[in-house]
């Protein structure tokens, strides 16, 4: 039951014969076959396929599995579950990445700075200080009745 | 009959009537749901819900009802308490009216759908969750409704589940809503730990609320109501069928975030930081969405961005500390936005699935009723005087102009208002007027009363609703009464400028040639590059690092390095170090032994 030992992934191929055998096992050409570097992370002889998501594969070709855009026997990427059509899309963007990032950050920073400026200089209806009658309530505020009250000018807005 | 009894009974009866299509098939052997029964149920519920609304309008009576209490801790009460106040009693009839029209429309739109009853069932469950959210008096019941609408949104957006784009859109909706839910749960936790309750009445007793729970509520509203930062799910949600877009993503679900802020507004009243944040976030959202809508070519996307922009406007109103006005805008917006979506659905089906406005034109002669209602809806959206949108939108702009607020927010909102006029006019020009660009054999048909009745009903609502609601509700705050003429007419002036801009641009497109791409056009049509920048970068790093942590790191460290291999390496290192110490000078060692023994013997 299950796959036989020679169909399962194996250790990192060291000799050219091992590489050829591994390429044959994964249904790849020897020229295309490139294993992950042997840095102890346990990839073994699994091929390092280009990091392209399924979005980039032809939507109109008659794949064996149309939802996965995959043919029977085709080697699957190590991170295939990240590259399906519900997840990360690596298809080339119309506008280069650095331009997108630059324009977006320009937009965002302009907005935030202008909001800051708008907070410093808010907009409001014209207001003036409260104006009271009777010489600014001079007597009511305890002013001396014998003295002349100070001149008060009232404005109309 | 006692008024309070009548009020409570009819409200609870509305909810009961809505849940009957769910309960009856479980209880009875022979009863089967069908689209007609569900539509009729919602219509009945609408008619019943008019009674509490009438009671409220005539007597101003509000009520809070507490039913069963979940006793799982003795000192923390979670009752099922329903608040029938101005907001819930006005929202029920509006939501039910709009839902009834949409369900009637959906009997035609989804007629070829094999699982149509399940579709109607899902819409009904969504409606129940939404009404629960509206009538909830404590945050627990609101959260139940909140999650319910989120789940139903996921199921309905991904209705055609074999379509990968629909699944991606549904996932986007769920994930962005979940990020917002973090905020809501944070606020609930804060509330439970400081006030020992989730009841809204008890939470409003404090005079000054700290900013943290308010930030949580604002985050929740950002997620659910698609404000800038958590907005991409709303345009993506157009992958769902048009009745779903009309019900969820225009009238009801997306206003849940704003509704939460309306319900909890007493907590916001004294905290100026939170209010300013709402204002600025709303202004940014409304402008960003309006900018994106100008260059879209899919009719549903234009209307989706229009919704996003109006939600930003509602958030701005919350930031002005005017929750009642925000609710007025929710109510009027529901009518014309649902109608716009239904009209677009009728157009799409009539053109056999064509959604690109560049392939429509001259439909005014071919689909008169639909396009007339489209025009009415667009005029209401732009805030044409005395249609529904005018009463809420113009009032918001007036209140903005006469308040003490952030200048940039004011300018952005005015700019967004003119952009609203621009993209609306553009849509109207390309869809209804001009030369026709549709294929020659199209199943154009609007003779079915299941199409025309809902649309005309909603058109009537779009015209009358503003007047009706403003005349029957007493405002809680004094609206600005006096202002200079320029301020009073600011909204209509910017709208007119927007229309002129659209007409100028369309003339330019026909007469002059412009380069296909420029930086501004690229920014607008790709929605500000927000989608690829965040979606690709965030998911790539998260998934990659997650896999490295979960599998590679675990395998490498715990199974190899921490155990055998590293141990062996350490052994090798110690062996190598000690080996260098071995110099192997046996004769010297023997000589030193002999010398030391002789010295010791001599010393004794």
Structure write-up:
- The complex is a heterodimer of chains A (157) and B (604).
- Chain A is mainly alpha-helical.
- Chain A has helices at 16-25, 97-120, 133-137.
- Chain A folds into 3 domains: 7-48, no CATH class; 51-91, no CATH class; 93-124.
- Chain A is 25% helix and 0% strand.
- The model of chain A has no long low-confidence stretch (mean pLDDT 88).
- Chain B is mostly helical.
- Chain B folds into 2 domains: 3-475 and 484-513, no CATH class; 534-603, no CATH class.
- Helices cover 74% and strands 2% of the residues of chain B.
- In chain B, helix 3 (86-109) packs antiparallel against helix 4 and helix 13 (272-294) runs antiparallel to helix 14 (299-319).
- The radius of gyration of chain B is 31 Å and the shape is globular.
- At the A-B interface, helix 2 of A face helix 6, helix 13, helix 19, helix 23 and helix 24 of B.
Key features of this structure:
heterodimer; A: 157 residues; mainly alpha; 3 domains; 25% helix; rod-shaped; B: 604 residues; 2 domains; two-stranded antiparallel ribbon; 26 helices; 2% strand
């Amino acid at each position: 039951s299950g796959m036989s030992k020679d169909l399962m992934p194996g250790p990192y191929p060291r000799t050219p014969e091992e590489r050829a055998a591994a390429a044959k096992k994964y249904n790849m050409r020897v020229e295309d076959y490139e294993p992950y570097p042997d840095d102890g992370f346990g990839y073994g002889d699994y091929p390092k396929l280009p990091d392209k998501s399924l979005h980039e594969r032809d939507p109109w070709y008659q794949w064996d599995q149309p939802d996965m855009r995959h043919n029977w026997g085709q080697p699957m990427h190590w991170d295939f579950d990240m590259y399906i059509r519900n997840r990360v899309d690596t298809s080339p963007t119309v506008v280069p990445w650095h331009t997108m990032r630059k324009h977006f950050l320009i937009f965002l920073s302009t907005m935030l700075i202008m909001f800051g400026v708008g907070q410093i200089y808010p907009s409001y209806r014209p207001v003036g200080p409260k104006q009271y009658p009777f010489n600014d309530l001079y007597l009511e505020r305890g002013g001396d009745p014998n003295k002349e009250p100070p001149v008060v000018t009232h404005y109309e807005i | 009959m006692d008024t309070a009894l009548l009020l409570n009974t009819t409200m609870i009866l509305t909810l009961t009537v809505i849940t009957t299509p769910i309960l009856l098939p479980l209880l009875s052997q022979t009863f089967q749901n069908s689209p007609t029964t569900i539509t009729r149920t919602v219509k009945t519920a609408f008619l019943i819900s008019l009674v509490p609304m009438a009671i409220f309008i005539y007597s101003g009576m509000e009520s809070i009802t507490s039913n069963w209490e979940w006793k799982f801790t003795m000192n923390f009460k979670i009752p099922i308490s329903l608040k029938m106040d101005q907001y819930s009693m006005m929202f029920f009839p509006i939501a039910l009216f709009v839902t009834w029209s949409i369900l009637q429309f959906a009997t035609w739109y989804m007629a070829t759908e094999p699982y149509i009853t399940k579709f109607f069932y899902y819409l009904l469950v969504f409606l129940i969750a939404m009404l629960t959210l509206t009538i909830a008096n404590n945050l627990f019941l609101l959260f139940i409704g909140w999650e319910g609408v989120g789940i139903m949104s996921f199921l309905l957006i991904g209705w055609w589940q074999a379509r990968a784009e629909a699944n991606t859109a549904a996932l986007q909706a769920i994930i962005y809503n979940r990020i917002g839910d973090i905020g809501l749960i944070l606020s609930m936790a804060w509330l439970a730990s400081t006030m020992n309750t989730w009841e809204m009445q008890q939470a409003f007793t404090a005079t000054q609320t700290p900013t943290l729970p308010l930030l949580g509520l604002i985050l929740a509203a950002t997620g659910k109501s698609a404000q800038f930062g958590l907005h991409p799910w709303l345009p993506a949600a157009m992958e769902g069928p048009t009745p779903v877009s009309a019900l969820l993503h225009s009238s009801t679900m997306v206003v849940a975030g704003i509704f939460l802020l309306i319900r909890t507004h007493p907590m916001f009243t004294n905290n100026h930081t939170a209010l300013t944040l709402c204002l600025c976030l709303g202004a940014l959202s409304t402008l960003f969405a309006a900018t994106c809508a100008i260059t879209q070519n899919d009719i549903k996307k234009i209307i989706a961005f229009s919704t996003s922009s109006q939600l930003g406007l509602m958030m701005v109103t919350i930031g002005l500390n005017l929750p009642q006005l925000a609710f007025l805008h929710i109510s009027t917006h529901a009518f014309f936005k649902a109608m716009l979506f239904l009209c677009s659905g009728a157009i799409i089906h009539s053109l056999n699935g064509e959604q690109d406005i560049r392939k429509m034109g001259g439909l005014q002669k071919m689909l008169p009723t639909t396009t007339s209602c489209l025009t009415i809806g667009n005029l209401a959206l732009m805030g044409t005087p005395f249609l529904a949108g005018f009463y809420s939108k113009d009032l918001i702009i007036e209140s903005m102009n006469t308040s003490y607020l952030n200048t940039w927010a004011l300018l952005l909102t005015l700019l967004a208002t003119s952009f609203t006029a621009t993209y609306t006019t553009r849509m109207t020009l390309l869809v209804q007027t001009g030369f026709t660009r549709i294929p020659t054999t199209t199943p154009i048909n609007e003779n079915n009363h299941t199409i025309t009745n809902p649309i005309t009903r909603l058109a009537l609502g779009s015209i009358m609703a503003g007047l009706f609601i403003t005349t029957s509700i007493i405002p809680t705050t004094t609206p600005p009464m006096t202002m200079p003429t320029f301020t009073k007419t600011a909204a209509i002036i910017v709208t007119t400028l927007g229309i002129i801009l659209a007409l100028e641009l369309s003339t330019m497109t026909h007469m002059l040639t412009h380069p296909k791409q420029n930086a501004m056009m690229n920014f607008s049509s790709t929605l500000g590059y927000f989608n690829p920048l965040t979606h690709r970068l965030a998911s790539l790093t998260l998934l990659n690092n997650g896999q490295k942590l979960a599998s590679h790191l675990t395998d490498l460290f715990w199974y190899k390095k921490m155990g055998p291999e590293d141990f062996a390496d350490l052994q090798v290192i110690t062996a190598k170090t000690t080996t260098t110490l071995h110099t192997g000078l046996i004769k010297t060692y023997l000589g030193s032994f002999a010398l030391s023994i002789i010295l010791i013997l001599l010393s004794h």
